[in-house]
């Protein structure tokens, strides 16, 4: 087991989906973790995607969007065929995913939940997404990320 093996890397390895680990010094005091991660790696924040756990009509779901963007909860609800969306509480998100906040990945969660990716990030070059631990990111082709999660591209962010 490598020092950076996580449930996310194990899942992608099992699916034979290629990725490249991007390791950085995680700063727990950073206000916007995705933006801090992008800065630490010298990447544009629209290239680094954050993973957020939400509830849509009381059901768990996962959304992945550029670190510099904010969710539009009415769009999130529509993306999952629901009426109302809200952020999942931190303790519930950690329990459902098996990851600590700051290390939540859409890959390898404890239980499979519907997943949507901000559509504007899905048609370009590889993106960087949390790899399942604080300070561990993975660079992955957007189409491979969709495939691994059975995810869908959707309009999720405020304009």
Structure description:
By secondary structure, the protein is α/β, with parallel strands linked by helices. It has 5 helices and 8 strands. Strand 2 (48-56) and strand 3 form a beta hairpin. The mean pLDDT is 93.
What is the average of the pLDDT values? 93
Estimated share of beta-strand residues:
25-35%
Q: What low-confidence regions span 5 or more consecutive residues with pLDDT below 50?
A: none
* Structural class by sheet pairing and helices: alpha/beta
Could you write a compact summary of the structure shown?
By secondary structure, this protein is α/β, with parallel strands linked by helices. It has helices at residues 7-14, 33-41, 73-79, 90-97, 142-149, and strands at residues 20-23, 48-56, 59-66, 85-87, 115-118, 127-133, 136-140, 152-154.
Please specify the SSE layout and strand pairing:
Elements lengths: L6 H8 L5 E4 L9 H9 L6 E9 L2 E8 L6 H7 L5 E3 L2 H8 L17 E4 L8 E7 L2 E5 L1 H8 L2 E3 L5
Parallel strand pairs: 2-6, 3-5, 5-8
Antiparallel strand pairs: 1-7, 2-3, 2-4, 6-7
Main features:
single chain, 159 residues
